[in-house]
């Protein structure tokens, strides 16, 4: 089982807390699990809408089923104009009997959420 920057569309707190967090100037939403550049015009609107969408979607947590023999996760948490963050391996429920092999794609590689699949195809397969 290979996971490419798994990001369940769900908030990790209330929508109200997420909206307040967007105004703290850090460019990071720990509620929505994404980063954004607060200096770009209009980006706060995208961040607010992302929180609203995730509030409605409520994706389940990521689970590795018991019948999985091998699992791997390639994930990142890069700050950029707008970037969904992959969840760290410690937040993936592993019900299998095998270890989850996790690979953090460091920020210096410049690989954001929308580029993980392309990077994987070019570098791993």
For the biggest sheet, the summary is:
3 strands, parallel
Which bin fits the share of residues in helices? 10-25%
Strand content: 15-25%
Number of separate strands: 8
Large-scale geometry: globular
Q: Average pLDDT across residues?
A: 94
Query: How many structural domains?
Result: 1
- Number of helical elements: 3
What is the string of helix and strand elements? EHEEHEEEEEH
Rounded to the nearest angstrom, the radius of gyration is 15 Å
Write up what this structure looks like.
The chain is an alpha/beta fold. The chain has one domain (2-123). The chain contains three helices and eight strands; from the N terminus they run βαββαβββββα. Strands 1-5-8 form a three-stranded parallel beta sheet, covered by helices on one side. A hairpin with a 4-residue loop joins strand 2 (28-29) and strand 3. The longest helix is centred in the middle third of the chain and has 15 residues, at 43-57. The protein is globular, with a radius of gyration of 15 Å.
